[in-house]
Amino acid sequence: MILLFEYSNAKVETNKKGCYVEGCIARAGLPPNRNNRVYGESVLSEAMEELHEKVKNGNAYGSLGHDPNPGVPHHSISHLIQSIKKVGNEYHSRACISSFNGA
Fold first, then answer.
1. What is the DSSP-derived secondary structure letter of residue 36?
2. How many domains, in total, are found in the chain?
3. Cα 87 to Cα 4, 26, 28, 98, distances in angstroms
4. How far, in Å, CA of 97 to CA of 103, rounded?
5. Of 20, 57, 73, 93, which alpha carbon lies 20 to 30 A from 84's?
6. Distance, CA of 17 to CA of 76 (rounded, Å)
7. Could you give the C-alpha distances from 82 to 26, 32, 33, 52, 76, in angstroms and in order?
């Protein structure tokens, strides 16, 4: 199985409860991400705080790829982000891969 992450290889764990993926989801500063963007620490920190609130409320869903519109269309949900932590200038997350097609 090949998993594409924004910056690095992902750690994949499968157990009786499901399949989980961990890896870097965002980085402040250089080098640019795969979309050739560089995010400043203040901008990224604010965005990660908003995402962290969704994680705490259990509604931080994600999809594969980048939808051109904000939000995640229900039919495209592929994972639920369970945690986010800052590691240096990077933000790492743990997500549970969904076993359903849409919500």
1. S
2. 1
3. 20, 10, 11, 26
4. 13
5. 73
6. 22
7. 16, 26, 23, 9, 18
Structure tokens at 73: 């269309």
Does residue 46 sit within a domain?
Answer: yes
- Please state the separation of Cα 28 from the chain's center in Å: 15
**Does residue 1 lie within any of the structural domains?**
no
pLDDT tens for each residue of 25-78: 889 999 888 788 899 999 999 999 999 999 999 999 888 776 677 777 788 888
Does 3 reside within a domain?
Answer: no
Q: Across-strand partners of 63?
A: 77
As a residue count, the chain comes to 103
Question: What strand order describes the sheet that includes 90-97?
Answer: 11-15, 18-27, 90-97, 77-87, 61-63
Locate the DSSP E strands across the chain. Answer: 11-15, 18-27, 61-63, 77-87, 90-97
* Whether residue 2 has pLDDT greater than 60: no
Q: What is the pTM of this model?
A: 0.79
